[in-house]
Design goal:
Blueprint: E1 2-7, E2 12-19, E3 22-30, H1 32-36, H2 43-64, E4 74-80, H3 84-101, E5 105-109, H4 110-116, E6 128-133, E7 138-145, E8 148-154, H5 160-170, H6 177-185, H7 210-222, H8 237-243, H9 247-272, E9 278-282, H10 289-302, E10 305-307, H11 311-314, H12 319-330, E11 333-334, E12 353-354
Parallel strand pairs: 1-4, 4-5, 6-9, 9-10
Antiparallel strand pairs: 1-2, 2-3, 6-7, 7-8, 11-12
This protein binds 5'-O-[(R)-(carboxyoxy)(hydroxy)phosphoryl]adenosine (KG4) and zinc ion.
Length: 356
């Protein structure tokens, strides 16, 4: 099946074509530089930008892959969770194409798509434990199959990427902050007593990162010399690390605090689900050097396979939507024209139409 995937849940407009579970081509327009001016995603600007670029991006995808629209056999769209106005742009294109081409439509859970994405390159083992760690989400899910996902834990406040981005803002480092903080962290060892491992003294699998932000704010208030003098789009990392004593150590300690908190919760989840065969991780924060090490160590310790996809498949993309879409459509899952977008924080309904 040749399946089109449409992804507009946050600040990336992305389209991809997948044929027989393999990627044919993809186009992605990132709004990162626009939102960087504001230190975070501005929802109204995001949806307007999606609308501006999505049509030309579709034409470019067809041209680059020498595909005619009529050859598309199925249409998959991220239907949530995400920014409502942004999701609606993707749904508009998906429904328009489904009607005009008379092809089946399926709405895909953006988080499930993240966890299925490595299926584009390797066989997936089920049951699997999945971690989505991004700027908008921090969730642990148990995937019994591609169609049966139960969410075991989630963040109660900030997403893990937000903890990085907000820390970066306090330190006058550019958005998105995780990359710069991770780069600075390479210049020091963590002080494991500096920051708490937040929200681990309980029995659950949820996260809470807002306390960590407060702890960082206190350290920054007591040590104003940690803050970069001006926010540069691409700061000189070695120069910053050398000129701000303690900054690299704070960044390394934040990495340690976050990665070891996630490791603790994943081990707890593994202990409760010994049937799990693989640990899949996705989301922009999985680029983090310390987290990647801890994830590999967790998998090894629990005797399961670590599935850490390459970065283009970890961050928001449409290949994962097209892939998940083809898996769902081929198994007879679809949606009608009443398919709705679901904003962040709301559960996604199980409202598939079964056509077999
Ligand atoms: O999945 P993603 O690309 O998109 C959204 O969630 O929108 O994730 C972006 C997040 C940002 O919060 C960014 O700070 C974080 O991923 N990030 C990192 C690293 N690279 C990106 N966090 C920690 N370490 C990194 N190396
Ligand atoms: Zn995402």
């Amino acid at each position: 099946m040749l399946c089109l995937g449409i992804e507009t849940s946050c600040d990336e407009t992305a389209l991809a074509l997948v044929r027989d579970k393999r990627l044919v081509g993809q186009k992605l327009a990132s709004q990162e530089r626009m939102h960087a001016l504001f230190g975070g995603v501005v929802p109204e600007l995001a949806s307007r930008e999606h609308l501006r670029v999505i049509g030309p991006l579709f034409d470019a995808l067809l041209a680059e892959t020498t595909t005619r629209a009529e050859e598309i056999e199925g249409i998959a769209v991220a239907r949530g969770p995400g920014l409502l106005g942004s999701l609606l742009v993707g749904l508009g294109l998906a429904k328009g194409l489904a009607i005009s081409l008379d092809r089946p439509l399926v709405g895909i859970n953006h988080l499930v798509a993240h966890l299925l994405a490595p299926g584009l390159e390797q066989e997936l083992d089920f049951p699997a434990l999945g971690l989505v760690a991004s700027g908008g989400h921090t969730q642990i899910g148990l995937l019994t199959s591609p169609f049966a996902v139960s969410w075991l834990g989630r963040t109660l406040d900030d997403a893990v990427g937000e903890a990085y981005d907000k820390t970066a803002r306090m330190l006058n480092l550019p958005y998105p902050g995780g990359k710069t903080i991770d780069a600075l962290a390479q210049f020091a060892d963590p002080d494991t007593g500096l920051l708490p491992r937040p929200y681990v003294d309980n029995q659950n699998l949820d996260f809470s990162f807002s306390g960590l932000k407060t702890a960082v704010a206190r350290i920054v208030a007591d040590n104003p010399r940690l803050v970069a003098p001006v926010m540069e789009a691409e700061p000189d990392i070695p120069e910053l690390a050398a000129s701000r004593p303690g900054l690299a150590e704070l960044c390394a300690s934040l990495n340690w605090s976050i990665a070891s908190t996630i490791r603790l919760k994943l081990r707890r989840a593994m202990a409760r689900h010994p049937e799990v065969k693989a640990l899949i991780a996705a989301g922009g924060v999985v680029a983090n050097s310390c987290l990647r090490r801890e994830l590999a160590a967790t998998a090894e310790e629990c005797g399961v396979r670590a599935v850490l996809p390459r970065m283009e498949l970890c961050t928001d993309n449409a290949a994962m939507i097209a892939y998940a879409g083809s898996v769902y459509l081929e198994a007879g899952y679809a949606h009608g024209m009443d398919l709705d977008a679901v904003p962040r924080g709301k559960p996604l309904p199980d409202d598939f139409i079964r056509v077999s």
